[in-house]
Amino acid sequence: MVDLYIDFDGVIMNTIEVGYKMVEEMGLEINYDNVGNFYKDLNWEDFLNNRCSQINDAMECIRKIVDSNLYNVSILSHVISLDEAIAKINYVRKYFDDITFIPVPKEISKTKMVHTKGAILIDDYAGNLREWEEAGGIGVRFNLENENKGFINIDRLDKVIGISNEKTMTKSI
After folding, report:
1. pTM exceeding 0.85
2. Domains of the chain
C-alpha cells in the first residue's frame, strides 16, 4: 500500500478562507504577523465546529479512500499552536478513530516529519508539494479552480483513488 498524506487546511476544511475573512472583518491587513497572531489566539474548537465547513464532502471522501484499501491514510497538518493541533485531532476523531493525525509545527517542513519517498501528499499549497517532490514523493494539488501549477490536480479527495506511483499520470484528474 502507498502512504497517502492529506493536508487539513484548505483541503479538508475551509479554515484558510474563513480565517482570512475573519481577519479582514477585524480591520487587520492580511500579513504573516496578523494572520499568525489570529490563529494563535483563536478558539479552535469553536472555529472548526461552528464557523468552518468541510470542502466537497471531505470526510465522506476520506472514508471512500480508506475503504479502497489502496493507501495507508494519514492527515498531515501544519499547526501554529497546541490548541490548534488538539482541536483538529478532535474534529477528525468525530469521523475516524483509526487515521493517524500528524501535527507539524509551522516552522518545520512536512518532508521532515514522515518518509516521503514514493508517498503521496495532497495539499493546496504548491510550495509544500514542490518540497515533497524534491524529497522523492508524489505531489497532488487540491484546488477547486483546476489550477494545477505543474502538479496532478484534484478538486475532490476521493479522486485520488487509483492514482499510481507512475510519473506518467495525467496532470489533471
Report:
1. yes
2. 2-12+54-160 (3.40.50.1000), 15-51 (no CATH)
